[in-house]
Amino acid sequence: MAHPFQFGFQDAASPVMEELLYFHDHTLMVVLLISVFVLYIIMGMVTTKLTNKFILDSQEIEIVWTLLPALILVFIALPSLRILYLTDEINQPWLTIKTIGHQWYWSYEYTDYNSFSFDSYMIPSQDLLPGQFRLLETDHRMVVPVESPVRMLISADDVLHSWAIPSLGIKVDAVPGRLNQMGLMINRSGVFYGQCSEICGANHSFMPIVVEAVPQEHFKSWSTLMLKNT
After folding, report:
1. SUPFAM superfamilies, per this entry (predicted)?
2. Which of 71, 88, 105 is the last residue of a domain?
């Protein structure tokens, strides 16, 4: 969960988000080094007249400033591609959950384990309990087991939506008539909040996402209870 006046990302709760945080710091350091180097050259040219024929008209310099940006891009692209394939990889999922976006709520279908489904609506401000977050709490949370690979199948019933949770490093478009897939594994217990990240209509800001990660024993008890109530 984000904090007031927070700078940077939320604390990572999944391996993918940990990799994204590392990549962010890696890229930021590259940008910082480039900025310092360019600033040094500019200040040198302004203050000490760091200009001569070798710098202004040199085939060697032209080769360097052509190849160097290409090498920097490769240096950034390699870890980026690694994370891209990591987010797409799903190895023997323990559970499959289908998420469908509607105007303006989410519905969840558990098909692999005690097949059942439910809708998740935002709790109105006047019905919130002490400690609950305005515009983020839902009447039914999506519950998943900790440290278990989960396959998310995401689609929409009417218009474009986007299922996004910042602390898990997940943002998948929900497209009508199309089924998008994303792997999810949460490495610690807790409650994680997200919102629809696609402008989907008048109540776009009123369809939050709440994912609760619990131990497998608690998940089995919860799923059994949900099955009895359906």
Report:
1. Cupredoxins (SSF49503), Cytochrome c oxidase subunit II-like, transmembrane region (SSF81464)
2. 88
Residue 133 and residue 120 in contact, taking contact as beta carbons nearer than 8 Å? no
Integer Cα distance of 31 and 54 in angstroms:
26
Task: Return the structure tokens found at 128.
Answer: 């919130």
Domain with 184 in it: 95-229
Confidence of residue 151 (pLDDT cuts 50, 70, 90): very high
Bridge-based pairing state of the strands 180-184 and 190-196: unpaired
- The rounded Cα 49 to chain-centroid distance in angstroms is 47
Helices (H), 108-150: none
* Cβ(213)–Cβ(192) below 8 Å: yes
Q: What is the dihedral of CA 170, 30, 78, 67, to 10 degrees?
A: 140
Contacts of residue 16, defined as CB under 8 A and 6 or more positions apart, other chains included, come to: 83, 86, 87, 168, 169, 170, 183
What would the pLDDT profile of 16-45 be if each residue is shown by its tens digit?
Answer: 888 888 899 889 998 999 899 888 877 877
- Please check whether residues 106 and 73 belong to one and the same domain: no
Compute the distance between CA of residue 172 and CA of residue 151 in angstroms, rounded to an integer: 12
Dig out the tokens for 1 from the structure.
């969960």
Q: What residue has token string 């983020």?
A: 136
